[in-house]
Specification:
This protein has about 375 residues and is mainly alpha-helical. The protein contains eleven helices and no strands. The chain has two domains: about 190 residues, no CATH class; about 180 residues, no CATH class. The protein is about 75% helix and about 0% strand. About 40% of the residues are buried. This is Heme A synthase. It comes from Massilia niabensis. It holds the Pfam family COX15-CtaA.
Length: about 375
């Protein structure tokens, strides 16, 4: 790819990043570092949702090379090549609309990469000057490394022609990047407004274990959901709660869950048969029962703790909405808007489960220190 094209793409990334950076700089919030973290978390959420839209509209190969589009910085310049590909295969992966969808997704990703670099440089600079906890550079540096890995998987998504395992990992890394930003944002929040100790610290230990379990099962379910989406198995079961009229339909787990293979193919190079798609869909659908039980229990337990009540309530509502969109996707034959909402719901659950884990961890630490402080105060009056 020409150096001029790379330069134009870099300028586009800077332009996209300059808009939220300017908004943060001009905001009335005195803590602009914290503001930037939460703006980045919001944009990463948006990128995940737009990535789902890109995948669900079959636009992942709208530009079949990387990082540009037919070697150009935008589809305007590559209009001739795109038009030729579209004329040769009108319903194929390359069209003018799909090219723009794919490139907008890339521009947003580049902008977030620039924002993470800005956050890292600011954290390092402020840490050297002040050594304040708010600017500890470990997490911003980890975010930078992580976004570079995510960028590599974004490139492989295209160069390996939407290989399901690569696309699924790309989705998981996006969710984990969102979780890291939310964790950092919660850290900044707690430095500004610390949590008051709980009156029942013993119950928090069980809730912390439950919150960690909720995070684990949610990651597994998102991986399964990504596997459904990347293998185009969403409508392999077109009714609910049965699948093809049966509780346990005919399934091919061996080929359905072979990880390293091309899209629509088995590892041996044969076409993937329908029972394999049924197995993929059926596992995701039934694992959702376990996810509902674990996250529902975690939400109920959090609801009992005053400092966590709002998070627990939001988690319960998000879980119900996610169940509704999941079932509606099947009932309404996979409408695009509901499918995108279902992917957005998964990102919302990631945000809330991350918040719950951070708050429980912090609340437990604060509450465990309370008895020692109280005993010391009581002894001083004896």
């Amino acid at each position: 790819m020409a150096a001029s094209t790379l330069f134009q793409l870099a300028l586009m990334g800077l332009f996209v990043a300059s808009i939220p950076l300017t908004m943060v700089w001009l905001s009335a919030d005195a803590n602009k570092y914290r503001k930037l973290v939460w703006v980045m978390a919001f944009l990463t959420f948006d990128l995940i949702v737009f990535g789902a839209f890109t995948r669900l509209t079959d636009s992942g190969l709208g530009c079949p090379d990387w990082p540009g589009c037919y070697g150009a910085a935008n589809p305007f310049i590559a209009h001739e090549q795109i038009a030729a590909a579209e004329a040769a295969m009108p319903t194929g992966p390359v069209t003018q609309v799909k090219a723009w969808i794919e490139m907008i997704h890339r521009y947003l990703a580049m902008g977030i990469g620039v924002l993470i670099m800005a956050l890292m440089f600011q954290a390092i600079r402020q840490w050297r000057k002040t050594h304040q906890k708010a600017f500890a550079p470990a997490m911003p540096i980890a975010l930078f490394v992580f976004v570079c890995i995510q960028g590599a998987f974004g490139a492989w998504t295209v160069t390996l022609k939407l290989q399901p395992v690569i696309v699924t990992i790309h989705l998981l890394l996006g969710m984990l990047l969102l979780a890291m930003l939310v964790w950092l944002g919660e850290h900044e929040n707690r430095l500004l407004t610390p949590l008051a100790p709980s009156r029942a610290p013993a119950s928090l230990r069980g809730l912390r274990t439950l919150a960690l379990l909720a995070a684990v099962v949610l990651v597994v379910q998102i991986a399964l959901g990504g596997w459904v989406s990347t293998n185009y198995a969403t409508l392999a079961c077109d009714e609910f709660p049965l699948c093809d009229g049966q509780l346990v339909p005919q399934m091919d787990f061996e080929h359905g869950f072979t990880l390293w293979r091309e899209l629509g193919m088995t590892a041996a190079g044969d076409y993937l048969q329908f029972p394999a798609l049924v197995a993929i869909h059926w596992v995701h659908r039934n694992f959702a029962i376990l996810v509902t039980l674990v996250l529902g229990w975690a939400a109920w337990r959090a609801w009992q703790e005053p400092a966590l009540r709002r998070t627990g309530r939001l988690l319960a509502l998000a879980l119900l909405a996610q169940l509704f969109t999941g079932v509606a996707t099947v009932f309404f034959d996979f409408p695009l808007a509901i499918a995108v909402l279902h992917n957005a719901g998964a990102a919302v659950l990631v945000v809330l489960v991350t918040m719950l884990n951070y708050k429980v961890k912090t609340l437990l630490e604060v509450s465990q220190r309370r008895p020692a402080n109280a005993d010391a105060l009581a002894n001083s009056y004896r």
